[in-house]
Task: structure prediction
Amino acid sequence: MLVVMQEGAPETQVQAVIDRLVSLGFTIHRSTGVRHTILGGVGPRDEFDPLDFEMMQGVKEAHRIVSPYKLANRTFKPEGTVIEVNGVRFGSNELVVMAGPCSVEGERQIQVAAAQVAACGARVLRGGAFKPRSSPYSFQGLAEEGLRLLRAAADAHGLLVISEVMDRSQLPLMLPYVDILQVGARNMQNFSLLKDLGEVRKPVLLKRGLAATLEDLLLSAEYLLSGGNYEVLLCERGIRTFETATRNTMDLSAIPVLQKLSHLPVVADPSHGTGRRDLVAPMARASVAAGAHALLIEVHPDPPAAFSDGPQSLFPDQFADLMAQLRIIAGAVGMTMAQGKGA
Ligand code: PEP
Ligand code: MN
Result:
């Protein structure tokens, strides 16, 4: 159930609608837009008439929401959601670049990486401390030590921190160190983790699963939103197809489709999306042209020596060249590059 209030409707009228929805057993999610307050009522019941609500004072319109994802649906926030994290805005007309190595490997590696990406204008430092590796024998990450090193490197260069959480048990450890929690592709449908993250008050970047449809992705986002965490970034990172020329198939059309279906900011990850360094820049450029609000890119000071995802990690000079190109493309599609410390 979606109730759109009239422009300037007083709080008493909003409250009357909320009370009525609650009395019908709905849980209320409120979206305060630039012009209208929108009340999303989520509940099991559908034996009510939207017209009853349209007759109430201060109500502009009321609709039954037929889409399976209600709070992630664009109708809940038609003007789009902007998520601000310490001055960095996702979902606005500022293009945000998040960059860094796949994994935090040690102090020197992450410090050098942070300096390099900050100098090129990145705003967020990425680096995994808990790694979801296909093989249990592969490098699994430095855990808390990795988080500490990541935070220190980011702070030294004016960057925010994004890192992957794989399990609820890692949350108490991670929360003091990270600004954005990443849910990996392999965990997109780990519903108990999503429920836990719904209770967290930190932004979550939710990656599309390897075989997930966009509706699956939006339903997973709905778990976070319905838990009360409204700060969700949707990330296209490539899907498994029959194509073998690339590690994954980067679904560029997911970017405009997600923007049509949802109000949540859309992030593109051309590194995992292609799995090959030579394809990262073309797909990053195309993602910005397609309207991505942000990019997540793997950059390593010495990719051949990387503990994970070396073949898809950019060399620092390649990243610098790419950032210069992205500035131009962003301008062509009405965006500006969010100004980083080194930009
Ligand atoms: C990563 O970002 O390093 C990662 C493991 O991503 P994904 O979950 O998309 O594979
Ligand atoms: Mn990686």
Remarks:
- Residues 2-66 form a domain with the Alpha-Beta Plaits fold (CATH 3.30.70.1140).
